[in-house]
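Illustration 12: SET domain-containing protein.
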Amino acid sequence: MTAPPRLEIRRTSHKGRGVFTLDPIVKNQLVLPMRGEILRGDQLTDDMLAMQIGPDLWLCSDGNRLDDCANHSCNPNTGFLTGKPELFALRNIDAGEEIVWDYSTSLSEPGWTLDCACGEANCRKVVRSWGELEPLHRERLRNWTLEYIRHL
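Figure caption equivalent — predicted structure in token form:
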């Protein structure tokens, strides 16, 4: 079993904070488990940092954990390969690279959007809920989603 990579939070030039690896990471290696308190949607408040993990389930945190600082990218280097809230390397990742994932692979809230700041050549400009992605993007991302998204 491969040792987990050493990760750290750093400031980024245009996205606030981000998570960066200090070690090389090999494809399919576990990079970052998502942790926090699981709440229903009706228990959420506006000041909570939450990631959707089910149709009405959210993983909530205080905003200071490594997984809270992992940024979105339209060209992610990690994804939910097992369907659980754990990010795995989608390719080999060099030491010093930012750990990024596609936020659309966990979210099914209709109408949710976020202006994208990833800067990738394939940037969609707006991050959307899973059901509002173009079919081409859903097909490309389907194997990197949380389990509940795979059945939508």
